[in-house]
From TrEMBL:
Keywords: Membrane, Transmembrane, Transmembrane helix. The chain crosses the membrane at residues 7-25, 45-67, 88-105, 140-163, 175-200, 212-235. This is Serpentine receptor class gamma. Its main location: membrane. GO terms for molecular function: transmembrane signaling receptor activity. GO terms for biological process: sensory perception of chemical stimulus. InterPro entries: 7TM_GPCR_serpentine_rcpt_Srg. The lineage of its organism: Eukaryota, Metazoa, Ecdysozoa, Nematoda, Chromadorea. It is found in: Membrane. It comes from Caenorhabditis remanei. Gene3D superfamilies: Rhodopsin 7-helix transmembrane proteins.
């Protein structure tokens, strides 16, 4: 359930970042997408894109934290890994609802301002602009990102310690520990890089480097979006086998008729 929700969030985040950051950066006056941004004068649409940009940052970090807690739960209660109690499902649904809705306490303010997509003659590309400066945009988000990153780091360390203390019944403990280390390091690395880049953007908001960091951040967002699914596919043999069965070509019996 968590991974399904995470997948839906990742799709929304990816296409929003594609429209706001990637496509605007390569759209010049001679581009076929020039008319798309030129006609985008609906304030509600542009404000929505702005709000989603910051809202999904909250949600991505929140869902990553939930997955870290769920991973720790599965490792500590292995007998519940296959069958999930109703009480736990309810708790998870409430947690997902909070992760999805609570960021509105901050991001709802973007609908009160007039955001615009303007063409930058110097850069020969479009840019999203709104009255709030970068410090105000990250006023609460940067603290949430930092706190969640620290908590995720502690939870992931607890997951590693839990696995390390498990008895080696199958003879694959070293391999499992190695997989866990790689998985936890990649997850924490992407979170730390995203948080560090956001802090750097705030510090260097008046310098020319801010524009470069702006174009790096979408790739970090993609890292948050695709790290969990790829790790699940790479380290989960059950998931890998199911996906192979889904995309494997089925053998079709060909009936040959021999007639005179």
């Amino acid at each position: 359930m968590l991974y399904i929700f995470d997948g839906c969030i990742n799709i929304i985040t990816y296409f929003n970042a594609f429209i706001v950051f990637r496509l605007t950066f390569i759209t010049s006056r001679d581009s076929i997408c020039f008319g798309f941004y030129k006609s985008m004068d609906n304030n509600i649409v542009i404000n929505s894109l702005t709000a989603i940009t910051y809202h999904m940052a909250y949600v991505q970090y929140g869902i990553t934290l939930l997955i870290s807690f769920d991973r720790l739960r599965v490792m500590r209660r292995r007998h519940l890994a296959e069958s999930t109690p109703i009480r736990l499902i309810v708790i998870m649904l409430v947690a997902i609802f909070c992760v999805l809705v609570l960021p509105l306490l901050d991001t709802i303010r973007y609908f009160r301002y007039e955001s615009k997509i303007n063409y930058n003659e110097e850069l020969e590309s479009y840019q999203l602009s709104h009255p709030l400066n970068l410090y105000d945009c990250f006023q609460y988000l940067i603290w949430v990102m930092g706190i969640i990153t620290c908590i995720s780091l502690l939870v992931n360390c607890a997951s590693y310690i839990t696995v390390r203390r498990l008895p080696d019944l199958s003879g694959y403990k070293k391999r499992i520990l190695f997989n866990i280390i790689i998985m936890l390091l990649l997850t924490c690395f992407v979170q730390i890089v995203g948080c560090a880049l956001s802090i750097t953007r705030i510090i260097l908001r008046e310098s020319s480097s801010a524009g470069i960091l702006l174009h790096i951040l979408p790739f970090v967002s993609d890292g948050l979006s695709f790290t969990q699914p790829y790790l699940l596919w790479f380290f989960s043999h059950k998931m890998k086998n199911k996906m192979k069965q889904m995309f494997r070509k089925k053998n079709v019996a060909v009936v040959t008729s021999f007639t005179n």
